[in-house]
């Protein structure tokens, strides 16, 4: 069976299946993708079972969100802190709709959402970036602002209008150029409307923060952290913020614009330093929160990938960085000249592993040099191929009726045979005990000692990419900042 695959040299960012959630019913404001919960009490930081698509059918939007973002993450202490904040904000907000319900999504993505019925959602990835109660309150106030301002209803009406315009343009206008111009103008109008909604929700959030007794400047601090997080992720993809171009169809204003707007709004209310910004309470609430990928979906530890659900592990060649996506792993060499992809497919009945590999699975690449071997004690096949600009090394290992596939591509005439051999030798089938031992990384709150530096804290996070920069990001610290002895900070550990 042939399947197209385009090599991507830029490190692939995560793209969760949030597009499955109807845009008309959902406002996602900050982003950069089982069974019902049992009634018994859960330990703090426990990952809840997956949610089945046929359950809770009376609330499909809620279900789609859970399915798109890894299910619900149960962290009683964190949830209790969030519920307290939501209650305070609800009392202070205009246009109270009744009650709000907060759900923590089991995703490392940085995002928050609101449904028109008052359901609020935050990912654990977002929670990790907040450093005090006013910062996380600004996120929740923003989402509540969308609900009270009925932005979802307004957007539904606007999208229906845009759809009508597009229909008219395609069916009535005979001039393709004129029709394209009308549709482009309609899309720009919708994007502009969305950005206006975001700015309005920002303004509402600042007012609500102050009314609820929180520091109104928490909104600007958290938006600044979001900007730094984006820059951190972009630099990890060998792409600077300056390389970005303004997307005229973006539904959100640029972060500097949002920061300027909320700062101006806060200045009209009070001088800095007024209102609650309790760092100790918030850090205590997120101590132990899972950070990064869920081991059931596969986690990256340096060059090593471990998937506890599939019970497999392997290591990328020296110099490679890995990114675990929802259904695959992408790797890129330091110089960008080699790319790695790992995924899986199901064998057809009566199809052998060797015949599957011989049929080829990369479009336009002839598979040759097929050899039988073993990977982790399991039957495997290796092969190679050549495209117009790339040399390929392929490996496939069979476990049951599934084939786990590795594609290693090198630009030019350099054969990546040695690198593929290292991958084959590293592949391992985990024992049940080893799979059970694969735990998520967690946020750990530590107290700085006298003389401790950012470098000291970074040394306590050896499995993280650019640990010093990550430590500064997580704690809202500027480059070269000095740690305060006795103050608590976030690090990432097991």
Describe the overall structure:
The chain is of the alpha+beta class. Helices cover about 35% and strands about 20% of the residues. The chain has 14 helices and 20 strands. It has helices at about 60-70, 75-90, 125, 135-150, 150-170, 175-210, 220-235, 255-265, 280-285, 355-360, 415-425, 430-435, 455-460, 465-475, and strands at about 25-30, 45, 75, 100-105, 110-115, 120-125, 290, 300, 305, 310-315, 320-325, 330-335, 340-345, 365-375, 380-385, 390-400, 400-410, 430, 440-445, 490-494. Strands 11-12-13-17-16-15-14 form a seven-stranded antiparallel β-sheet, with helices on both faces. Strands 1-5-6-4 form a four-stranded mixed β-sheet, sandwiched between helices. A hairpin with a 4-residue loop joins strand 11 and strand 12 (about 330-335). The longest helix has about 35 residues, at about 175-210. The radius of gyration is 25 Å and the shape is elongated. The model is unreliable at about 1-25, about 30-45, about 45-60, about 155-175, about 175-195 and about 240-250 (pLDDT under 50).
């Amino acid at each position: 069976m042939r399947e197209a695959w385009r090599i991507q040299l830029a490190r692939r960012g995560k793209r969760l299946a949030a597009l499955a959630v109807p845009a008309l019913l959902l406002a996602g404001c900050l982003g950069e993708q089982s069974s019902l919960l049992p009634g018994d009490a859960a330990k703090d930081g426990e990952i809840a079972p997956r949610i089945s698509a046929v359950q809770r059918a009376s609330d499909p939007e809620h279900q789609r969100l859970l399915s798109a973002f890894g299910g619900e993450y149960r962290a009683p202490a964190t949830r209790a802190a969030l519920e307290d904040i939501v209650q305070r904000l609800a009392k202070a907000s205009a246009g109270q709709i009744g009650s709000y319900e907060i759900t923590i999504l089991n995703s490392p993505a940085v995002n928050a959402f609101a449904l028109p019925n008052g359901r609020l959602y935050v990912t654990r990835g977002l929670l990790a970036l907040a450093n005090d109660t006013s910062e996380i309150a600004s996120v929740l106030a923003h989402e509540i602002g969308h609900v009270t301002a009925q932005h979802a209803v307004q957007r539904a009406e606007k999208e229906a209008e845009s759809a009508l315009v597009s229909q008219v343009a395609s069916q009535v206008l005979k001039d393709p150029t004129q029709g394209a111009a009308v549709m482009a103008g309609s899309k720009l109008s919708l994007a502009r409307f969305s950005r206006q909604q975001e700015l309005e929700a920002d303004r509402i959030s600042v007012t609500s923060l102050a009314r609820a007794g929180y520091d109104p400047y928490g909104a600007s601090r958290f938006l600044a952290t979001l900007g730094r997080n984006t820059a951190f992720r972009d630099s990890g993809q060998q792409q600077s913020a300056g390389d970005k171009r303004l997307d005229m169809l973006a539904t959100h204003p640029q972060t500097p614009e949002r920061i300027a707007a909320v700062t101006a709004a806060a200045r009209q209310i009070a001088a800095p330093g007024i209102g609650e910004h309790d760092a100790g309470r918030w850090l205590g609430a997120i101590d132990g929160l899972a950070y990064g990928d869920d081991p059931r979906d596969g986690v990256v530890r340096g060059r090593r990938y471990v998937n506890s659900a599939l019970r497999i592990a392997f290591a990328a060649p020296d110099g490679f960085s890995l990114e675990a996506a929802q259904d695959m792993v992408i790797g890129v060499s330091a110089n960008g000249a080699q790319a790695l992809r790992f995924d899986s497919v199901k064998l057809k009945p009566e199809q052998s592993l060797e015949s599957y590999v011989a049929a080829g699975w990369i479009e336009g690449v002839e598979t040759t040099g097929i050899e039988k071997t073993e990977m982790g004690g399991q039957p495997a096949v290796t092969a190679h191929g050549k495209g117009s600009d790339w040399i390929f090394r392929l490996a496939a290992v069979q476990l049951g009726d599934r084939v786990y596939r590795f594609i290693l591509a090198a630009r030019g005439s350099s054969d990546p045979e040695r690198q593929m051999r290292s991958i084959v030798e590293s592949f391992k089938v985990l024992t049940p005990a080893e799979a059970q031992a694969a735990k998520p990384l967690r946020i750990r709150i530590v107290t700085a000692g006298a003389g401790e530096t950012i470098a000291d804290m970074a040394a306590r996070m050896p499995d993280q990419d650019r640990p010093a920069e990550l430590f500064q990001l997580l704690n809202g610290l500027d480059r070269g900042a000095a740690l305060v002895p006795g103050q608590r900070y976030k690090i990432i550990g097991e």
